[in-house]
Amino acid sequence: NSSPTPIRLLGRSWLISSDLETIKVNQPTSGVVGQFPVLSPQGIFEYSSGCEISGSGCALSGKLYYEVMEEGDKGDDEVDYKNAKVEEIEVGAVELKAEGFIDIEALGREI
Predict the structure, then answer these.
(1) What angle (nearest 5°) sits at the alpha carbon of residue 41, between those of residues 37 and 68?
(2) 105 φ, ψ to 5°?
(3) What is the pLDDT of residues 18-64, one digit of tens each?
(4) What global pTM score does this model have?
(5) How far is residue 20's CA from residue 13's CA, in Å, rounded to a whole number?
(6) Are 104 and 91 in contact, with CB atoms under 8 Å apart?
(7) 67 near 85, Cβ under 8 Å?
(8) Is 22 within 8 Å of 59 (Cβ atoms)?
(9) Are 16 and 25 in contact (CB under 8 A)?
(10) How many whole angstroms separate alpha carbon 34 and alpha carbon 52?
(11) How far apart are CA 1 and CA 48, in angstroms?
(12) Residue 81 burial by Cβ neighbours in a 10 Å radius (0-12, 13-18, 19+)
């Protein structure tokens, strides 16, 4: 989190494609692997997730959805999606390595 205020990750949407198929993961409100982590300024959250995809030339693109936290909010309450100020950050197309792993932090993407 490169912003001066805390944020809470709410979900993600990924488009994972190869020369043979495309997989859509659209989970903007289900957390990140079931968690809704709060990142303080300069905070980091890491997770692992995966899918199987056939073919070659695999690439990933998508969005991370987050909520800017209000002053004093610790993020221990449930997410109020009706009133939450949900924002998103684009993760541009990235070619996946042969073994299929991707490190978003290494992409230099910042929230």
Answers:
(1) 60
(2) -60, -40
(3) 889 999 988 888 888 888 999 888 898 888 777 788 888 888 888 88
(4) 0.73
(5) 20
(6) yes
(7) yes
(8) no
(9) yes
(10) 20
(11) 18
(12) exposed
- Cα 72 vs. chain centroid, distance in angstroms? 24
Cα torsion 39, 29, 93, 37 to 10°: value is 20
Give the Cα separation of 11 and 8 in Å (integer): 9
Tokens of 88: 């998103």
Question: Taking the mean position of all CA atoms in its chain, how far away is CA 43?
Answer: 14
**Amino acid residing at 95:** E
Residue 18 in tokens: 């190869």
| The pair of three-digit structure tokens given for residue 94, joined into one six-digit string | 């990235």
Concatenating the DSSP letter of every residue in 79-109 gives P-TTT--EEEEEEEEEEPPTT----GGGGT-
Q: Strands, E, within 35-76: which ranges?
A: 38-39, 59-68
Phi, psi of 104 (to 5 degrees): -60, -40
What is the distance between the alpha carbons of residues 101 and 12, in angstroms, rounded to a whole number?
Answer: 17
Contact 110, 4 (CB under 8 A): no
